[in-house]
Specification:
The complex is a heterodimer. Chain A is α/β, with parallel strands linked by helices. Chain A has helices at 44-51, 73-77, 95-105, 110-123, 139-151, 169-184, 196-202, 220-226, 234-255, and strands spanning 5-15, 19-29, 33-37, 59-64, 67-68, 80-83, 157-161, 188-192, 205-210, 213-218. Chain A has 9 helices and 10 strands. In chain A, helix 3 (95-105) packs across helix 4, helix 3 (95-105) packs parallel to helix 5 (139-151) and helix 8 (220-226) crosses helix 9. The two termini of chain B are 43 Å apart. Chain B is 76% helix and 0% strand. The chains are: A alpha/beta, B mainly alpha.
């Protein structure tokens, strides 16, 4: 893990009908695998969508590898890849055409892009379907195509929102292997997941969000030590932290 | 929750009918209110005002013919038959579209087919509802004329409503039988596309063929010219022929009306009884399409000289090329270019009058085509998150998409430009200006009023922004008129350019919040 800051979020706020993200501060270091956990509606996806440039924050600042997202979004986006839980790909394009299109958007040289694409489809088990249109692909296949698209321009920071939802064991294993190998090569990964076992096994640090704020952060061991129940699984620790965090948020709002 | 939904006997005809009618009503309500129930009063007032205006307009047109009296001679029956066939072609076109949608829209089919309920009864109700839906649409179109005739001439004209119901029944029967035939002959995978093309051709085809025949016989471009021609009247069958049955029924004659009602009712009952059995099997066949084998494409390596703009343009063209349904929907407007093309061909060298027909029609079609394609490329972007997270400025992305649209419109209208360039370079310049301006305005309106949707919702794109649809049509009309008049004198273009500019400014002011 390198010590440079891959992502720095300060005082991030976003409200819809009610505050979704409420003064969030977060630091993720280069080459780190960071898991963002939280109950439904805690603000995880909203936070990541703001980092990916899909949503404008109401307040706060997002810095990606030293580039301020709001000041120079193009430079910041060139370092990022975004993969959502429901990847939207073109049904009428083949896998290779999709990767060619994504490479073009990120300005990757065609020779390099083609070489990388062939490696990626092979690596992700998509080679037999490389020339097929994506229209009839299963959820797992679509997720792998989206992941290949995210990797083909070799981003420094990959943001994944629930990437393993709905995948079978084999596809999930493939995706996890690809992500871990990228981290070994120095790529930074931020991922939200509801599968706590995945966070426990894969992430170097875990952040827990509740009510739009970061209520706990650290390695699994550090979180366990913070929890009242120290011999517990991540699930127990998570529930304990979230409960405490929500209570504090409730008291905070009453005090305010 | 109301208790009424639970009170009817489940799986009965009435139970399904209540379910279907509720869905149709809510669909219709959301269509006219844009999903905002509070707009019901405003929309209702606008529709009422429009209907009253339409009645007044028709009453004004019919004043002279009514004053001289309407008799059931061959000329009158021929004109009424012409109206009836036009209406039937529209109903048939709509029925084909509705029947296909009932097979392919899978929103509730999976639930229904996997339930232990008898699907036959449901499909009996669904086909009956198609007939109702088709008939209501035609009644709305014809009601001003029927009401004016009924109140200003004689109440017997109100029997035309019953004739429309019968025509709706026939249209549904033919549409269902045609769809079943397509399933048997071309298979489930191609039925939808072919049915959509037939629907478009039938919808526009009858009117276009009337215009073509009128042009060929030198009667002009009017849809009714052929029916009012003395030559056609002379060739028409005698008054005692069965050919006049629908027209006589419309005029309130007893036996023709009863024959028509009996024939239509019996046909509908037989077709519903037959098709309901087949419906479930065919609907299951369409369900398997998605799981079917994927189409493959040849791979010849990545393009070596590609940049962001070129990959975006190529992507848009590839997606359009590979979606024949969407392409056929977008290119429907081009069907209407056939008659001006014909007019140009027949009248070549005979005078300048032809250019005043050709130029506005082509400009209108270009504007409408550009609007549809812009919606597909801009609002119907299926992977918008990918585009939004890429390091491409929004301006560059929109420019590339606009270029993709302009090139397609240019290609579609180029035969007319080339032909006019040959016949009259001045007319070609006017046409080029009109096409370019109408296209650019349509693209800009779609940019200002973009709202992210799936491109599969193309047919309902007007609902997502009524302002965009109305502005697009208005600006196209202005440029069409301006370009035609510019052929007489270039200065005539200036006031129309100013009006178009004003309309564009209003469209910009009415853009949704957050759009640049």
């Amino acid at each position: 893990m390198t010590s440079s800051l891959a992502l720095e979020i300060t005082g991030l706020k976003k409200s819809f009908d009610r505050p979704a993200v409420n003064g969030l501060d977060l630091k993720v270091y280069g080459g780190e695998f960071y898991a963002l956990l939280g109950p439904n509606g805690a603000g995880k996806t909203t936070t990541l969508r703001m980092v990916a440039g899909l949503l404008l924050p109401d307040a706060g600042e997002i810095t990606v590898f030293g580039t301020k997202l709001m000041r120079d979004p193009i430079a910041a986006k060139s370092k990022i890849a975004w993969v959502s839980d429901e990847p939207m790909i073109y049904d009428k394009l083949t896998v290779m055409e999709y990767l060619e299109f994504v490479s073009g958007l990120w300005g990757v040289e065609p020779d390099i892009a083609e070489q990388r694409s062939l490696e990626l489809v092979d690596w992700l088990g998509l080679a037999p379907h490389a020339m097929e249109r994506c229209g009839g692909f299963s959820k797992g296949m679509r997720q792998k195509v989206a992941l290949a698209g995210a990797l083909v321009h070799e981003p420094q920071l990959i943001i994944l929102d629930e990437p393993l939802t709905g995948l079978d064991a084999s596809s999930a294993r493939q995706v996890k292997d690809v992500l871990l190998s990228r981290v070994k090569r120095g790529t930074t990964i931020i991922m939200t997941t509801h599968i706590l076992e995945v966070a426990e096994r894969m992430a170097e640090r875990i952040g827990v969000i509740a009510d739009g704020r970061l209520v706990a952060e650290g390695t699994f061991q550090e979180l366990r030590e913070r929890s009242s129940n120290q011999s517990s699984t991540l699930e127990d620790v998570f529930l304990d932290i979230v409960e405490t965090g929500e209570e504090e948020a409730g008291l905070g709002s009453i005090a305010a | 929750m109301s208790g009424s939904a639970f009170s009817a006997k489940s799986n009965s005809f009435g139970w399904y009918a209540v379910h279907e009618m509720r869905l149709i009503w809510r669909d219709f309500a959301s269509l006219i209110t844009g999903g905002k129930p509070r707009r019901v009063v405003i929309v209702g007032a606008i529709i009422t005002a429009f209907i009253i205006g339409l009645h007044m307009f028709v009453a004004n047109i019919m004043r002279a013919p009514l004053a001289s009296g309407i008799v059931a001679d061959k000329a009158t029956l021929l004109l009424i038959s012409g109206f009836a066939v036009m209406l039937f072609s529209l109903m048939f076109s709509q029925a084909i579209e509705s029947v296909t949608r009932a097979y392919y829209a899978r929103s509730d089919l999976d639930l229904l087919l996997s339930s232990p309920a008898t699907s036959r009864r449901l499909f009996q109700v669904r086909t009956s509802m198609l007939a109702v839906h088709t008939t209501v649409f035609a009644i709305l179109i014809a009601s001003p004329l029927i009401n004016v005739l009924g109140f200003m001439d004689h109440p017997r004209w109100f029997s035309a409503y019953l004739v429309i119901v019968c025509l709706g029944g026939f249209a549904t029967c033919f549409a269902v039988l045609l769809t079943l035939l397509l399933f048997r002959t071309v298979g489930a995978a191609k039925t939808r596309l072919i049915a959509q093309i037939i629907s478009a051709i039938v919808g526009a085809g009858f009117i276009i063929s009337l215009q073509v025949m009128a042009i060929m016989f030198g009667e002009g471009i009017s849809r009714l010219a052929l029916f009012t021609s003395a030559d056609t009247v002379a060739r028409a069958p005698d008054l005692d022929s069965w050919f006049w049955l629908p027209a006589q029924a419309i005029m309130g004659q007893g036996w023709p009306l009863m024959t028509l009602v009996a024939a239509s009712g019996l046909s509908l009952i037989l077709v519903i009884a037959y098709s309901a059995r087949r419906f479930a099997v065919d609907a299951q066949a369409t369900s398997g399409l998605v799981e079917g084998r994927n189409k493959t494409e040849a791979f010849s390596g990545f393009q070596r000289r590609s940049n962001m703009s070129s990959v975006l343009r190529r992507k848009e063209w590839d997606l359009l090329k590979r979606d024949p349904w969407l392409l056929s929907q977008s290119l429907q407007q081009l069907l209407y270019l056939f008659t001006p093309g014909m007019l140009l061909w027949v009248n070549y060298g005979s005078g300048f009058g032809v250019y005043y027909v050709v130029i506005p029609v082509v400009v209108m079609a270009a504007g409408q085509l550009a609007g549809g394609l812009s919606w597909v490329t801009i609002s119907g972007e299926d992977a918008h998150e990918l585009i939004d997270t890429s390091p491409v400025t929004s301006r560059a992305m929109l420019r590339a998409k606009s270029e993709a649209v302009i090139v397609v419109v240019g290609l579609a209208t180029s035969p007319f430009l080339i032909a006019l360039l040959w016949f009259s370079p001045r007319a070609a310049v006017c046409l080029a200006i009109g096409i370019l301006m109408a296209t650019c305005c349509a693209v800009m309106i779609q940019l200002w009023h973009r709202s992210q949707c799936s491109r599969s919702l193309f047919r309902r794109r007007q609902v997502s922004s009524k302002t965009a649809t109305i502005s697009e049509a208005a600006v196209s009309i202005i440029w069409a008129t301006g370009a035609a008049l510019a052929f007489r004198h270039g200065l005539f273009l200036i006031p129309f350019a100013l009006i178009a500019g004003l309309l564009m400014w209003v469209a910009w002011l009415l853009r949704p919040q957050g759009q640049v």
